[in-house]
Amino acid sequence: MGNDKKIVLEEKKAELAGMQQLIKEHNFPVIVLIEGWGAAGKGTLLGRLIRDMDPRFYRVIPGKTPTDEDRRMPFIWRYFKDIPENGKFLFMDSGWMEEIVAARVSGEIDKDTFDRRVESIKIFERQLVDNGYVLVKLFLDIDRNEQQKRVEKLLSDKDTKWRVSDSDKLQLKKREKFEKYYKKCMDATDLAQAPWNIMLGTDEKTCAMKAFSLITDAIRKRIDSPVVPEIQDCSKFNLKKMPSLSEVDLDKKLTREEYDKELEKCRKKLRELHNKLYRAKIPVVIAYEGWDAAGKGGNIKRLTSGLDARGFEVNPIASPLPPEKARHYLWRFFTRLPKSGHIAIFDRTWYGRVMVERLEGFCSENDWKRAYGEINEFEKELVDSGAIVIKFWIQIDKDTQLERFTERQNNPEKQWKLTDEDWRNREKWDVYEDAVNEMIQKTSTKIAPWYIVESNDKLYARIKVMKTVIETIEKALSNEK
Hints:
This protein is of the alpha/beta class. It contains 20 helices and 10 strands. The strands form 2 sheets. It has a 5-stranded parallel beta sheet, sandwiched between helices. Strands 7-8-6-9-10 form a 5-stranded parallel beta sheet, with helices on both faces.
């Protein structure tokens, strides 16, 4: 019987190694999350899984205590930034569930925070699966007596005692509480496309064979029966009623004298608020979208003129690079989030999913229709973590755009700003306007509303943006008191 197990195990190792080429051919990534009791054999299982695999195409992340930077970011940030690109494996020795359960049992987080993080995990896992990831979740189970025996054995040897973490010791001390919160998290996140698989850790070879089968079966299922994700009803996100773009009055103007006076006032106020933001450790995310030639660049330049250069970063977003395109579309934005007390400004954003990617056919219809809900969830995660999210649509009319295009074309110093793509997009003005209206209606939430900025007059638009940022930050700071 022992030899039979060994033969089967070797076959399964070879089978999993062969899956590396298969997922490269079909262009999707695989995440294997191994959770379980301390000393249940997670490390041993992980070693068996990767032994025959090509190390160029997988990564292993061991469980680790969150850093100060991790704690200052949205909870799911530290896991989102590590997701693999298409065609690669990620193996995790403990992860998001272990983190929140240990934090809850130790008293580091309260019940409400635990519940919010469980919901964040549920959303994170669902989004991964919806966007083509294979997610296999394994939990290694042993009883308390077996765990105690194994921990004592590890502690008795100077070469292995380092493997016993504070969390392992806490598990033994408060086993019942760990069981309670493990169950609560697993029940909430036992998704149809990413179920929890509980395995007995007492028989290493049997456990390994089951793990190999679960992973290879999940990969075959992904190839043979691709997921067709559900599209969420955005009304559940507490939306704010917004006008359509055609209803916006674009005749608002400022004289140069009025502008210069207001600009200096706004700069002074922004400098003061930026210092307060830093002391309060509040991050700010400012998103700019708008028509070509609407004045986003000049607007951003004036806004940042009132900020401490050490405390902000402007992220110009162009077409995704290959490593970005090979991951979940929100990955490149998660990796650009600001530190606490800092400001991240995005010149074009995650909303490209429901505009250019939608209209140019760079994603499927299900992808962009699903993205409204995913974006609302992303922004809620930011706000729940303490961030301020401010979103601007810079609006001009078609005639104003043509005037500015013509000016750029006739000015050698500005010709670089005008591309053939700008002219092509102009021809699609009406379909883009329909897409923008739908985007604003479905993603202007009470916690992260859209501000439509009248920009036929650039001076008016710049001051409106600066005042909106000031008012929003002042409100957030007053709520902190």
